[in-house]
Amino acid sequence: MRIGVILLLCVCNGFAWGQSSSPAALQSNRLIAHLKAAEWPAAEALLDSNLRKRIDATQLEIIWKGLQLAQGELQQVGELSSREINGKSYYYRQLDFLKSSVRLELQLNAREKISALRLQPLSDADLYLPPAYDDPEKYQEFSLRVKYDSIQLPAIITLPKNGKLCKVVVLLHDIGPQDKDHSIGPNKMFRDLAVGLAAEGIASLRYDKRTFRYGPELMADLRVLTPETEVIQDALAAIALLRTVAEVDTQQVHLLGLGVGGMLAGSIAAQSSLPIRSIVAIGSSPRPLPDQLLDQYIQLLSSKLTFEDMQVAVQQLERQSKLAKSPALHSAVPADSLPLQLPAPYWLYWRQFDPLAGYWQTNARLWFVRGEADYQSQATDLAQWEMRLLGREKTKFSTFPDLNHLLMAHTDAPLSEAYKAQNQVDAAVVRALAAWIKK
């Protein structure tokens, strides 16, 4: 149930943890305590006169009892956080009920009375909090469509405000169905990068991956599902689309690929209809993809299974990985006997694909990046890129301490929970990427 004034959260540009003794913390604690104790008039007394005209004690009772009926009893109250929006402070607390979570949002007036209030059920997407470097005054966004034959993929071009002939980055997804923001839990790596780069004067294009937008239709005919049809065709169409954007410099196109996107970026650059000035490959590897997946799953399983249970699961994964690389693999092999249950043509493509070839063919500057806390790529992967590109000019290799696969701060959560907490791409990474692109 929605309450009172709707707070617009899409223009947030600052973040700080509130102290338990702050007026907002005290008022939110009092409000929650009164609601839990069914003290409706006391809860109403915390509201300012304008808000009480819209929400009285009776309405607070209906709202709170409705929440309890739908979500169960309140279990836990989260820490207070705050944001500055156009010079005004807004405060947030997560309320964990038995069945789901709700975000309490409020604003205080000069007399420390609650002047705006909202209780909003949360999904993973709702839990996303923009990074501190997200300044809506510095960018504008427009919707586009990446088109390849009958395929149409929703896209967003993010442009610096008043920018002319901007450098532009095309963002390339990792493995699996991914939306344009590369949303994982409450985290949105590609959105963070887009707004962060825009603040540095750099445009970007991001779009829904074909398997995200057309998953069921693609699965109806597994013969078309290969990295060529899943990634490369649409990436080339996205690059060509930049010709229609007057604000970008089509002689200053850059690629940024995460994981598998980094493996394919060299090939995409070599086939591009526009010159590619540089490529950033993040958390990527030149090793066979089945081997990478096996390593990742072993680490994931070891964090949540007993040794005996892990042995069974690993043996199955090893059989699938071995088959995916086998010369005996053919297009009729059933998908359920292969990694991720992806079809045989997908793995036949990878078996003949050399991620190094495109990197040797393109004249783009290359930067291979890895977060040291990345369990989805290994330190040896970065070393292999360096060894196998030995002698190539304009090539750089870097690691970022304490960052994960998404270049966000590492947490102490188990690997299986690594992306479930709110997080943002590290600000220092955004600045480093911008400096690299501007060279």
What is the strand and helix layout of this fold?
Layout: E1 16-17, H1 23-36, H2 40-44, H3 49-52, H4 57-71, E2 74-77, E3 81-85, E4 88-97, E5 101-108, E6 114-121, E7 139-148, E8 151-160, E9 166-172, E10 183-184, E11 187-188, H5 189-199, E12 203-207, H6 210-213, H7 215-219, H8 227-241, E13 248-258, H9 260-271, E14 276-282, H10 289-302, H11 307-325, H12 344-352, H13 355-361, E15 365-371, H14 379-388, E16 395-400, H15 427-438
Parallel strand pairs: 9-12, 9-13, 13-14, 14-15, 15-16
Antiparallel strand pairs: 1-3, 2-4, 3-4, 4-5, 5-6, 7-8, 8-12, 10-11
Unreliably modeled segments: 1-19
Give the total of beta strands: 16
The third-level CATH topology of the largest domain is Rossmann fold
Note the main sheet.
8 strands, mixed
How would you name the CATH homologous superfamily of the largest domain? Alpha/Beta hydrolase fold, catalytic domain
Q: Roughly how many Å is the radius of gyration?
A: 25 Å
Distance between the first and last residues' Cα: 51 Å
Q: What sort of overall outline do the alpha carbons produce when their principal axes are compared?
A: globular
Strand order of the largest sheet: 7-8-12-9-13-14-15-16
Mean pLDDT: 88
Structural class by secondary-structure content: alpha/beta
Strand content: 15-25%
